[in-house]
């Protein structure tokens, strides 16, 4: 018996393509360079070594030539069998030599680099293939083709024009602020300053007219658009400083435009950057006050502009708190408010949103016995996506394209989204399910679809702590109780339910066998297989074992 060449599984990771493109291809010519790059493949788990297969080297069964007389055809047959056996042995020995091993590593590294280059510069065929793939919907395929298509000369010209235009605009604005023309009749400000402020004011109007969070999905914004946003943001941050050279109105409008862009992008990062800018500008204003060089209305922002954005954030949060408890900046007689107070109000609102979000993320795992639940008895749950089997408990079966408040889940403490089905755990440990019922995946005793949440029955009665439902195959679900027992139900192919057979289970059934007497603290229903972890750190797996997914070696 001998071991064959170690088989490997290739899994190229898209986000590492850029790093492979920049690798020095000349290093592949040396064995040391290939070893380093191959180690990188192993470290990133793009090449996974599979269990070696045993090769039987037993030759053909030969007759006793001393006692048996063979015909010429039989002698020819046995001779061919011996030669084939020797040839197979020679191939195995040669392929396992150090030279062959280094050659295989070199080929894998070259294959990885070729994939990265092809994916970036020659991916038209790939995009077309993804558009026809049943695993990808048309929306994701369209997005991929738009975001990663090769750049043409037209794209380069457009980008050059946009970059040049922005640079020219920024230079003209700075020049107009730094070198204003003489005052107009009656001592009115020069026309150039008004023109600069009008440009920023127009941009504010455009941003304000957009629907909320129009710039939140950066994957749908082309790279040139993101680069323009970054340039505009950098320019505006410099303008907001009192020593930037811009007039007071220009600095105020710049801070308002920055806030509008931050709210449209909907990311905590940009909101915190605005808060940092406002505090930095306020610090400069404070220094100017001490030096007695401060002008009137310095370090202010439009009250209505700020409150519109703040109220928009509060409406999206769905807060029912009394408005008198909310911090609001002090409004001046001119309709302005302090940048410092606005920064504090916005930071307080961000903290409130984070606090509300953290409460919705608390699972029963963090609730200790005898303590009051951290999660409130009622909560707000939003649903979106496919509703083809009523898995979102909505009246129609149409797709829900935006998050929608679902009153049916108001008392949910934990929600598990399975394949065309949904499971809800309440504060008392009971479980309800809805959606597609084929193969008994809902655990309700039948294979019917369920358009409303319906309670499951556990025998013996138990309080459920966590549910895990598979996202593939024909659907199966695991649940463990507060005592650490594990129930399973649904499709039983490949023995993934853990009951010692492949039968479908339409009611939750307690798993016995090796898990009996164990206190389970985590379960996971995978694709045609299942896993559980006990409190003493033991991992149990069962189901289909292809590709080593169970972590076991079979001899």
TrEMBL record:
Zinc keyword on record: no
Record's protein name: Probable E3 ubiquitin-protein ligase HERC1, partial
RCC repeat ranges per the UniProt record: 379-428, 429-483, 484-536
Domain of life: Eukaryota
Biased composition annotated in UniProt, kind: Polar residues: 130-140
Signal peptide: none
Protein keywords: Repeat
Residue ranges, annotated region (Disordered): 125-150
Cross-referenced Pfam families: RCC1 (PF00415)
